[in-house]
Amino acid sequence: MHQQVRKAVLPVAGLGTRFLPVTKTVPKELLPVIDTPLVQYAIDEAQEAGIEEFIFVNGRGKNAIDDYFDHAFELETLLKERGKSDEWSLLQRLNPGPGKTAFVRQQEPKGLGHAVWCAKDYVGKEPFAVILPDDLVDADQGCLSQLIEVYNRTGGNVVAVENVPREHTNRYGVLDIGTTDGALVEVKGLVEKPDPSEAPSTLSIIGRYILLPEVFGHLDRHEKGAGGEIQLTDAMAKMIGSQLFHGLEFDGTRYDCGSKLGFLEANLAMALKRPELSDDVRKMMVTLLNE
Ligand code: UTP
C-alpha cells in the first residue's frame, strides 16, 4: 500500500507573457474557456482524483486567484434576492472549502522548479500532485485520476506524457524511455527543452505530475537550467535511479492554453461539447470559414 496522494500544488505565479496585454491585470489561470476559468478545470480534475488540499504558488499582482476561491458575499446576496438560485448554487460549488486552500508566495518567477520548491513546507514528507492549470485536459476519466491509479499500483513518481511532433520537443521536458508496458513507460532519463535533433524521444511531459517529496532535496540546490530558470525537470531527472519513475500516456485530449492557438482550440472544442452551444458554434464556424 503506497502513501495516499492528498495534496496538489498549483503553480500560478508565471508572468504569462504570451498572453499580454490581458495578463497585465488578469492572471492567465483565470482566463475562461467558455465561462469557466482554467484554474477551475484544474480544481475539478483534482477533486475528482480525490485531492483534499490545494496549495497555490502565487505571485505579485495575481491576487484575483485568491479572491476567486473566496465567497463573494455581495454578489451572492444579490443573486439570492433576485431569485437566481441556479447561479447562486453554481458559485457554492466552486470552492474546495474552508481550510482546504493555501496560498504561498513566489516572490520572483524563477521557474517552475522554484515555484514547486516554494510549496515544500506545506507539502511536507508525502507524495503530492502538481497541476499546471494552463494545460487543460479533456478526458472521460480525469488525467490526474489516471496518474493516481497508476501511482496506487506502482508507487514512485508518475508523470503524464504525450507524443508531440519532433519539431516541438524544445518546448517540453522529454523522456528517455526504458521498458514499456502498454501506456506505461519506464523513465530512464529526462531532458528539458532538447533541440529536436537531440531529443531522446518525442514523449513529452505535460502539466500533470505525481512526485515523491525527495524532489525537494534536489530543488533545495536552486540550480538554474534551460533558459536560466530553476527547472522542475532537472530535479526530477536526479531522482531517476534512486526512485521509481514512470510516464503515463494518458487517455484524453490536452489543450495547451498557455499558447494562443491552444487556448482558442480549447474554447472551440469545449463549446462543441456543450449541448446548449454546439449547434450554433458549428454554424458560426462554417459561416466564418466561408466568408
Ligand atoms: P509557463 O512556462 O507557461 O510560463 O509556466 P508563464 O510565465 O506562465 O507564461 P509565458 O511563457 O510567459 O507566457 C508554466 C506554469 O508554471 C507556472 C506558471 O504560472 C504556469 O502555471 N510558473 C512558471 C510559476 O508559478 N512560476 C514561475 O517562475 C514560472
Question: What key attributes describe this structure?
Answer:
291 residues, alpha/beta, Spore Coat Polysaccharide Biosynthesis Protein SpsA, Chain A, 9-stranded mixed β-sheet, 11 helices, 13 strands, globular
Content of β-strand: 15-25%
Distance between the termini: 59 Å
Reading side by side through the largest sheet, how are the strands ordered?
5-4-1-6-11-8-12-10-9
CATH topology group:
Spore Coat Polysaccharide Biosynthesis Protein SpsA, Chain A
CATH architecture identity: Alpha-Beta Complex
Largest sheet: 9 strands, mixed
**Rg over alpha carbons:** 19 Å
The count of DSSP E runs of length 2 or more, i.e. the number of strands, is 13
Ligands (ions, cofactors included)? uridine 5'-triphosphate
Regions with pLDDT < 50 over 5+ consecutive residues? none
Helical fraction equals 25-40%
Mean pLDDT: 95
CATH class: Alpha Beta
Query: What is the domain total for the residues?
Result: 1
Q: Count the helices. How many?
A: 11
Could you describe the 3D structure shown?
It is globular, with a radius of gyration of 19 Å. The model has no long low-confidence stretch (mean pLDDT 95). The chain has 291 residues and is of the alpha/beta class. α10 (260-273) packs across α11. Helix content is 33%, strand content 24%. The protein has helices at residues 38-48, 64-68, 73-81, 85-94, 112-117, 120-123, 143-154, 215-219, 232-237, 260-273, 278-290; strands at residues 7-11, 32-33, 36-37, 53-58, 101-105, 128-131, 135-138, 157-163, 173-181, 184-192, 203-211, 245-249, 253-256. A hairpin with a 2-residue loop joins β9 (173-181) and β10 (184-192). Bound molecules: uridine 5'-triphosphate. The site of uridine 5'-triphosphate has 21 residues, from α5.
